[in-house]
């Protein structure tokens, strides 16, 4: 793995741009495929070099499913949790599809068993075959028919199971012209991401009825146009903090896009930071840090590393609750946050699922961090370097490709000097 030296001692105010939101684009791509809006025009207008790797994975997977059934198709999901989980269901509901999935060792060890069980229960009796290697390949042969139109899945491991099955229900509704349901058992984690899936289904013309923990696709009315794709609120999290420190602003900050990580606008306010909107979806944060912050991994899991970086430069301790889900992301992110805070000279204590973060009294001149291949750990380490003025040696900077390929270019725009 390569190393990058990050020097934040020549910062300048700049207008920073996030990439397209991978979570939104993944949903839109599947729905464009199902409803005849392929290729998705709003994705085609995104600069090719800025497309998140996970969006490419999802797109290639859908392209494989659009080919006539017959030969076994290979789909490499690389490090993409949502792409893999979404594509497995789409493959399972494509009559006669034969797909061999592969991915990184880390993706292979992340949980997906409950999603497979749900698919086998609903589609297995009609011939779904789903076999697992150790952990790869995962090989799937889809049945030609279905029977009882309901998927049942637990909610506490990942919202991606329910999102994936709901997108599968939309496919089955169109094919079979009968309602299909997803029944979520127990409490749903990361519920905002299922909301995002519902929003996209509705934008593409589906009616989804909700009762208690059951979501049923009951109707479809083609929309006039495929909806446009928004900027990514997860990436805006880093950029807003960087712009706060440098006196800059961010673009593509659309408050109408209810991505869970938009929660940053509310969560930084108790710490003393106020969002100010400008023209054309620009935004900046104003104010002086005056207190710690509190955030929950149940609401916005991907934002917690970003908020931990901010927590390191606040004048009081911060509290991150429900942090358990962070253990099963692209790396063990709970461990990653604790390592970052310690490398920066701060302290963390974990009690149950609550992490308390105490910043150091003064920033170090320099700190080192290993991303362990996790894009968010790479980008929050760099964000902390900018926020604090401390130089950073980062091992494994390439992984930003997953969600934000242009991240290092944005850093250079704001005066950060990068050297290998
Ligand atoms: O559905 C999605 O697009 C996502 C859901 C979340 O995962 P979990 O539901 O597993 O927490 C989130 O962490 C991930 O980055 C993207
Ligand atoms: C957890 C993430 O993505 P995924 O689960 O899709 O790999 C993420 O991007 O932080």
TrEMBL record:
Domain Enolpyruvate transferase positions: 75-411
GO biological process: amino acid biosynthetic process; aromatic amino acid family biosynthetic process; chorismate biosynthetic process
EC number: 2.5.1.19
Pathway annotation: Metabolic intermediate biosynthesis; chorismate biosynthesis; chorismate from D-erythrose 4-phosphate and phosphoenolpyruvate: step 6/7
InterPro entries noted in UniProt: Enolpyruvate_Tfrase_dom (IPR001986), Enolpyruvate_Tfrase_sf (IPR036968), EPSP_synthase (IPR006264), EPSP_synthase_CS (IPR023193), RNA3'P_cycl/enolpyr_Trfase_a/b (IPR013792)
Catalytic activity field: 3-phosphoshikimate + phosphoenolpyruvate = 5-O-(1-carboxyvinyl)-3-phosphoshikimate + phosphate
Record key words, sorted: Amino-acid biosynthesis, Aromatic amino acid biosynthesis, Transferase
Positions of transmembrane segments: none
Source organism superkingdom: Bacteria
Molecular function GO terms recorded: 3-phosphoshikimate 1-carboxyvinyltransferase activity
Listed Gene3D superfamilies: Enolpyruvate transferase domain
Family: Belongs to the EPSP synthase family.
Protein name as it appears in the record: 3-phosphoshikimate 1-carboxyvinyltransferase
């Amino acid at each position: 793995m390569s190393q990058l030296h990050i020097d934040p001692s020549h910062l300048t105010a700049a207008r920073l741009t996030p990439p397209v939101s991978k979570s939104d684009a993944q949903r839109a791509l599947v729905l464009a495929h199902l409803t005849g809006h392929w290729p998705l025009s709003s994705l085609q207008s995104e600069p090719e070099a800025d497309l998140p790797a996970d969006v490419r994975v999802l797109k290639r997977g859908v392209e494989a499913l659009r080919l006539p059934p017959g030969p076994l198709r290979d789909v490499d999901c690389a490090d993409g949790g949502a792409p893999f989980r979404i594509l497995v269901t789409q493959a399972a509901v494509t009559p006669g599809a034969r797909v061999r999935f592969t991915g990184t060792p880390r993706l292979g060890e992340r949980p997906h068993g409950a999603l497979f069980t749900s698919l086998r229960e609903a589609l297995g009796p009609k011939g779904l075959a789903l076999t697992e290697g150790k952990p790869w390949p995962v090989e799937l042969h889809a049945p030609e028919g279905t029977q009882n139109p309901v998927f049942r899945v637990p909610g506490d491991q990942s919202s991606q199971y329910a999102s994936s099955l709901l997108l599968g229900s939309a496919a089955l509704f169109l094919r079979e012209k009968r309602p299909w349901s997803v029944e979520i058992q127990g409490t749903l984690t990361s519920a905002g991401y299922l909301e995002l899936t519902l929003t996209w289904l509705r934008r593409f013309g589906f009616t989804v009825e909700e009762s208690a923990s059951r979501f049923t696709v009951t109707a479809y009315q083609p929309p006039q146009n495929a909806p446009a794709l928004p900027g990514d609120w997860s990436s805006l999290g880093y950029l807003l903090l960087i712009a706060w420190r440098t006196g800059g602003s961010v673009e593509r900050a659309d408050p109408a896009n209810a991505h869970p990580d938009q929660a940053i606008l509310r969560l930084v306010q108790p710490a003393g930071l106020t969002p100010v909107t400008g023209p054309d979806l620009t935004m900046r944060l104003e104010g002086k840090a005056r207190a710690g912050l509190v955030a929950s991994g149940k609401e916005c899991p991907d934002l917690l590393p970003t908020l931990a970086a901010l927590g390191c430069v606040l004048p009081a301790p911060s509290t991150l609750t429900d942090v358990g889900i962070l253990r099963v992301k692209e790396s063990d992110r709970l461990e990653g946050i604790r390592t970052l805070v310690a490398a920066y000279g701060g302290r963390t204590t974990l009690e149950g699922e609550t992490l308390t973060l105490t910043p150091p009294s003064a920033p170090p001149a320099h700190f080192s961090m290993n991303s362990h291949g996790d894009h968010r750990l790479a980008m929050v380490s760099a964000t902390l370097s900018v926020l604090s003025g401390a130089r950073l040696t980062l091992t494994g900077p390439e992984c930003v490709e997953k969600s934000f390929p242009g991240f290092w270019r944005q850093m250079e725009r704001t005066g950060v000097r990068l050297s290998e």
